[in-house]
Amino acid sequence: MSGQQPPPPPPTPSSTQDTTAAGSFSQGEHGQPRKYEEYAYVLDFTPRGKSITVRGREGVIIQAMGEERLTLLELLGIQNATVEIGERLYIGREGREKVSSVLGRLEYTAISQAAKNELANIIEKVVVANEKRFINYINNAQPITPRIHALELIPGIGKTYMMTIIKERDKKKFENFSDLQTRVGLRDPAKLISKRIIEEIMGQARMNLFVRK
Predict the structure, then answer these.
(1) Is the distance from CB of 101 to CB of 75 less than 8 angstroms?
(2) What is the pTM of this model?
(3) DSSP class of 11
(4) What is the mean pLDDT of each run of 10 residues along the chain (213 residues)?
(5) Which of 22, 58, 113, 174 is the most exposed place for a label (fewest CB within 10 A)?
(6) What distances in angstroms separate CA 191 from CA 36, 37, 126, 163, one per listed residue?
């Protein structure tokens, strides 16, 4: 025996790496996925409510949707702070003005009817406000299987539109929703993306393109 140790095995990718199906989507400033939300949009709130995620917690209970990962959240608001439906609140780790803490994540079935009624409008508001992020997804989405492309999972985009989008983006990347609509003929892309996000939040999609759990 030579006494030599066998070479160490090659490193394996981290099992905790956050990836998005068929293309990168939820990314922070330096291209890395954020683990925590920094902003959330108010869907509903109760000035004197009880938490459904943290036992015994009472106060200003806010149901919201995160801007980055598009998950439903329960927040504890600061007493006497003014909160409005549709308002964009800072929920980062430091410098919060209206939110005391992020209590936890919510399932769609757990949010109020008022929150459900606001969801479609808020999602579209988020998509429009983050147009560059979503148009980048359109520019970079890839096939999920040899027979299905990620773009086809967005409502209103069948194989014909999918092929046209790929052909056009190969010539030049889309700059915004208006550019996509003009060059491809796809009407109201923001609303179509919003419909897909709603399906994912409601748990109706087999695979998530945009919502990060």
Answers:
(1) yes
(2) 0.82
(3) P
(4) 45 36 47 73 96 95 97 96 96 94 96 98 97 97 95 96 97 98 96 98 95 88
(5) 113
(6) 26, 23, 11, 20
